[in-house]
Amino acid sequence: MENGGETKEWRFKGNQTLTTASGFTVRGVLNMLMENLNPDDQRQVLRLGHGDPSSFPCFYTSPAAEDAIVDALRSRQFNCYSSTVGILPARKAVAEYLSRHLPYTLTPDDVFLTIGCTHAIEVALSVLTYPGANILLPCPGFPYYEAFSAYIGLQHRHFSLLPEKGWEVDLDAVEALADENTVAMVLINPGNPCGNVFTYKHLQKVAETAKKLGILVIADEVYEHLTFGKNPFVPMGAFGNITPIITLGSISKRWIVPGWRLGWLVTTDNQGILQKSGLVESIKSFLNISSDPATFIQGALPQIIEKTNEDFFSKIINTLCLDANLCYEKLKEIPCITCPSKPEGSMFVMAKLDLSLLRDIQDDLDFCLKLAKEENMAILPGVAVGMKNWLRITFALEPLALEEGLERLKAFCQRHGD
Ligand SMILES: *Cc1c(COP(=O)(O)O)cnc(C)c1O
User: Which residues carry this modification: N6-(pyridoxal phosphate)lysine (predicted)?
Assistant: First the structure.
């Protein structure tokens, strides 16, 4: 047995559930497009595929937020482990911040800090799962929900967002899909991928439907306050008196620091239903067996929230608004692409491809692969967010780069047109 002898058979292999779950994520598809770029193309690579504008100077985060991080780091108070639910001053800051737009006051006990909104999604889905349970997800949507549900064995069903109704939820479909094993529905507002912002009235109807069905609403509000159209942002938590709500958020999008990895899961539970159901206990248990956001980032949070001034937010909103208009107007010049409505929030718009006007394009994926190769740019094929032969276009770029991207898109469509 000098070398340990012969191994008959290795006992380990990669987890197959993961391969299946991660099959069609945004990151997976974008990586594939990036591999398709033409290395000889000297032009700048334009990324209209993902929502991370942090590298453009006009989207740099606020200096106040940077100072907050430096101060927290230098204070040496945050070199320690965090408590599993997050440190108290940071939870207090989030409770106060979100309470500004709610008809009542959240307490730090309602707030759980997470490693970005992504981790908050993982917590929310994990605590709801039991064998046979299912969750209702929007289509089009944010594929991380599908991927993580698949990974933990939570079944999912899709309800539509209706393009002809400004991407409102098909509430009849929600009622038809729900059964005795349905635990929750997910709502993303402002919308990714549709760029829509739900009205107060519609959100109220969603809350009433959820109450009727006895299911939880998981409100993904990672784009909170990034609105620039007729509808103001209304937090779903405002309807916590109708039905219990779990709100997910982070500083990734509003402060444009997705790399800082700080998010939250917040319960609005005026009637104590989540508490009674054991869900709050379950959240704490889950956080006991998962990791925490870096303590110094948590330590900086009170100052990030307090010191970032309105000028920063309005400058970002103005740029996004300019971008959204530019995108909508430029797309009108391209016959084979139509937007059902002008984006009013978030960083994205959904646009429909008319393949009959294109000579040699099979579908949305083929369109995006050829576009990457010929024009050195990325756009997400709709199939990645649940809508085949649509495109999800990110307009959150430096406006000149966006304009250039839309010009290339137009040239590509002309070249492949009939
Ligand atoms: C970006 C995004 C997230 C993830 O946010 P992080 O804070 O970066 O983890 C979650 N949900 C939606 C809809 C997003 O667009």
Answer: 253
Ligand 1 pocket residues where CB is under 6 Å: 51, 116-118, 142, 188, 192, 220, 222, 250, 252, 258, 263
- 346 CA closest ligand 1 atom index: 15
Q: Which two tokens stand for residue 280?
A: 């709050």
Judged on CB neighbours under 10 Å (0-12, 13-18, 19+), 31 is: exposed
Under CATH, what is the fold of the domain 64-307? Aspartate Aminotransferase; domain 2 (3.40.640)
CA of 381 to the centre of ligand 1 (A): 18
- Give the single-character DSSP code of 417: B
Domain ranges of the chain: 16-60+311-415, 64-307
- For 154-166, b/e burial (b = at least 16 CB within 10 A) is bebbbbbbebeeb
CA-based nearest residue to 401, from 345, 323, 312, 339: 323
Q: Write out pLDDT tens, residues 342-361.
A: 999 999 999 999 999 999 99
How far is the centre of ligand 1, averaged over its atoms, from the C-alpha of 166 (Å)? 22
Choose between 8 and 342: higher pLDDT. 342
Architecture of domain 16-60+311-415: Alpha-Beta Complex (3.90)
Report CA(204)–ligand 1 centroid distance (Å): 24
pLDDT band at 28 (very low <50, low <70, confident <90, very high): confident
* Mean pLDDT, residues 325-350 taken together: 97
